[in-house]
Amino acid sequence: MKTHYIPVVIVGGSQAGLAASYCLQQRGIEHIVFERNTVANAWRDMRWNTFCLVTPNWQCTLPGFSYTEEYGGSDPDGFMLRDEIISYIEAYRAYFNPPLHEHTPVHSVTSHEAGFEVLAGDQRYLAADVIVATGAYHLPKLPGLSADLPTHVLQLHSSTYKDPAQLPPGDVLVVGSGQSGCQIAEDLHLAGRRVHLALGSAPRAPRRHRGRDVTAWLVDMGHYDITVDDHPQGEAVRHKTNHYMTGRDGGRDIDLRRFALEGMQLHGRLQAVTEDQIEFDDTMLANLDAADASAERIKQEIDKWIAANDIHAPDAEPWFACHQPEGGNSCISLGFDEPQNLAAVIWATGFTSDYPWLEVAAFDEKQQIDHWRGGSRQVDGLWVLGLPWMVTWGSGRFSGVGRDAQYVATRISERNHQPQASSL
């Protein structure tokens, strides 16, 4: 096996890996990017057909390639659909032509006197620095109760759901009320399916307030510049559930009360699966109230900002609860011959991180890469990009990954990398 010497190896070829590549290229640092599948693979294969961004397109600011300027996007206040997101990332690749090797899995990264030994594809590489840019969403997370469901009920994780036609006739249960769960429940509801939604403690955010998208207000308020170090919750914020809203059809609130008024069945947390039924606890109303209270708090903070800065803005339209669904414990019958039988369950229950190829002592007690601002606390020369709340709220999104990539590239440059020829 031939050995190649390369200053920096980047693992992962989506927006985080490409952002890192661009920043290194600008500094004249030789590197290589390995992608197990193809560019933007997770966007292509792990999102449903009507998926769209929940942040406006103008927040898409990959290094050297903003949505409005270099990309030439014509709808800055809109929300890119899945296929448009893929096109944006593919256009970024074409914009600067990174040294990207697709369909080249990284089998192992181990310590070496040169820094790291990387086995990728059928080749061996020695590198001084390695950037892990594979994101945080690797393995679908399913609760143990999923094993107790009868075989006639189709089970899908949110990463494999595509559209309502994929499911057999009958009722559909969506478990999880974070962004994916609420948006998939909406997708099914708008298609005329009878939907059950098991609510967790995910908060809700308003889409617009006082004449502007809430995102624009929060940018002005400096919300997206708050770092983990300055956040009241500290590093615990990395595990906080995102607020749910949608960019669908130009962007709007997701009002679960209205969905319930229109026939969607809301439940508390999944509690048990018996031979005859699925049982839920009585937390539905409390979770619904807490989500709505979260949205109201965001509006109140914006109102304070408007008043403090003497900004002229339209008056707010008062929010009211359009419906109060019945609370208490609830259940769904599992009888196959019931008039409204349960046909499918979609688990919007998140992911776990998985780095079986990263064979260095870089992990904390939760088996997450232990880092500060993307630099490993334990392994010199190991870096990470694209994780949620890596530095700020935008670290795992188009709005912040570029800033993080610039920082990491600068730190790598300070380690005295010099442009050099290689055997690649």
From TrEMBL:
Residue ranges of coiled coil: none
Keyword annotations of the record: Oxidoreductase
Pfam families to which the protein is assigned, alphabetical: Pyr_redox_3
Enzyme Commission number(s) of this protein: 1.-.-.-
GO MF terms, alphabetically ordered: flavin adenine dinucleotide binding; monooxygenase activity
Matching InterPro entries: Auxin_biosynth/cation_transpt (IPR050982), CHP04046_FMN-dependent (IPR024000), FAD/NAD-bd_sf (IPR036188)
Enzyme class: oxidoreductase
Gene3D superfamilies, per database record: FAD/NAD(P)-binding domain
SUPFAM superfamilies: FAD/NAD(P)-binding domain
NCBIfam families: MSMEG_0569_nitr (TIGR04046)
PANTHER family: FLAVIN-BINDING MONOOXYGENASE-LIKE PROTEIN (AFU_ORTHOLOGUE AFUA_4G09220), FLAVIN-CONTAINING MONOOXYGENASE
Protein name: Putative oxidoreductase CzcO
Species the sequence originates in: Granulosicoccus antarcticus IMCC3135
